[in-house]
Write a structure and sequence with these properties.
48% of the residues lie in helices and 9% in strands. With 420 residues, it is of the alpha/beta class. Strand 3, helix 6 and strand 4 (124-130) form a beta-alpha-beta unit. The longest helix has 19 residues, at 156-174. The mean pLDDT is 85.
């Protein structure tokens, strides 16, 4: 008998057996109602790997009695699609075919456009899957002819029944009862990051290599931790997970939650990514802390320099210090708002001539030099004198507003006292 991976053997054959996805496959789930109705439209399944996208496509094929053809966009070509279309209308596929196109984001625009002619006549029903946001990764015309369903990451609690089924199947295969140390099942469920395929691979490896004592297969916590030590990491530097974690790090620092910020920093560092957290940390120092604590910028820069010199794993220490500093520092986005407002005026063409007082007098041609009239602030009490700096068109325009923190309010009082 040919070897069959546990992940394939345990694959559900009915919607009730699918792990998770209750929001779309539960008793009142929209996708369940669509499938049970029998008239299945073109579909796009979006979500992490191992969450049931391929499984649901298989169930749809069985319910509609249509042949299912699988292609992976990383290797498939337009010729492969045309070969499948050659079956339509024949005894092999009298009612059309289902095409399951995995990782559709790897099809370029031209390849995705080629799908349209086959989708229009209804002889082919496309079920495409992607781990990236389809509203960015899928060509608009294909997207407009399809219904998008999001498959969410499976929770550890939802994964436990599948793990128990996998252990039961392996017990029958190996002809011995299984005894797991306390916490092993939960370790697999949580460490596999909601990917049932990874969880089944872990179960299969653990049971195949398990020690036999008194006719039982013994699975230790130590072995479980070794097998799944990094399988929970969902990370692709070009994928949604990368941007989601980076965004969560930035927003956690901005939201003054050091615990959450450290969590997302740890996820990036565990994936070996130094550059992404460094960029977010440097940006947050000016965007989110800014003038409320200006010294955050040189301190954070020093932490980043240390991290780059140390490299991983030691780099985690100065980066963690920077993250905690930014998360616990007072916050002000006055700089962010000020430069945004100034750039908006520039982009809108509101610029005007630079006041004569501010022009570079040395740039005037010989013999044409005019009186500049610039007032040198340091020649005046407290190093300030009233004069116009903005172009006439923008005279009186305010971009910077003092934040409500101690540092900026102190500066506000200082300048109000001088300028009054």
């Amino acid at each position: 008998m040919a070897y069959r991976p546990l992940a394939d053997e345990i694959r559900p054959t009915t919607l009730d057996e699918v792990v998770g996805q209750r929001h779309i496959l539960g008793p009142d789930g929209l996708l369940r109602r669509v499938i049970e109705g029998g008239d299945v439209p073109n579909l796009i399944f979006y979500g992490p790997s191992g969450t049931g996208k391929t499984t649901v496509a298989n169930i749809i094929a069985r319910r509609t009695n249509r042949p299912l053809h699988r292609l992976n966009a990383t290797t498939a070509t337009i010729a492969d699609i045309k070969d499948i279309m050659g079956e339509v209308g024949t005894l092999m596929a009298p009612d059309g075919v289902l095409l399951y196109l995995d990782e559709i984001q790897y099809f370029n625009k031209k390849q995705q456009q080629s799908l349209l002619e086959f989708m229009e006549n209804g002889k082919i029903t496309l079920i495409a899957s992607t781990t990236e946001n389809p509203f960015f990764a899928v060509f608009g015309a294909v997207l407009s002819r399809s219904t998008v369903f999001e498959f969410k990451q499976i929770t550890a609690e939802d994964a436990l029944p599948a793990i128990d089924r996998g252990i039961s199947i392996m017990s029958e295969r190996l002809g011995a009862p299984v005894e797991c140390e306390e916490g092993v099942r939960e370790q697999i469920a949580s460490a596999c990051g909601g990917d049932i395929r990874k969880a089944m691979n872990a179960v299969e490896l653990l049971l195949t290599a398990a020690k036999r004592e008194q006719g039982k297969l013994l699975v230790s916590m130590e072995d479980a931790k070794t097998v799944v030590q990094k399988s929970a990491m969902r990370y692709d530097r070009e994928g949604d997970a990368h941007f989601d974690i980076a965004s969560a790090l930035m927003k956690s620092m901005r939201g003054s939650d050091p615990d959450a910020a450290l969590h997302y920093l740890a996820r990036l560092l565990e994936a070996g990514d130094l550059i992404t957290p460094i960029r977010r940390i440097l940006c947050s120092a000016s965007e989110d802390v800014g003038m409320a604590y200006p010294m955050a910028v040189p301190i954070v820069k020093a932490c980043v320099d240390n991290a780059l010199q140390l490299g991983l794993p030691e780099a985690r220490l100065p980066l963690a210090q920077a993250v905690v500093l930014l998360a616990t520092a007072p916050k002000s986005n006055s700089v962010y708002q000020a430069i945004g407002a100034a750039m908006a005026d520039v982009r809108a063409g509101r610029v005007g001539d630079i006041p004569r007082e501010l022009q570079n007098v040395h740039a005037d041609s010989a013999g044409l030099e005019r009186d500049q009239g610039y007032l040198y602030p340091h020649d005046y009490p407290r190093h300030w004198v009233a004069q116009q700096y903005l172009p006439d068109e923008l005279k009186g325009r305010h971009y910077y507003e003092y934040g409500d923190n101690k540092t900026e309010q102190a500066a506000k009082r200082y300048w109000e006292d001088i300028k009054k």
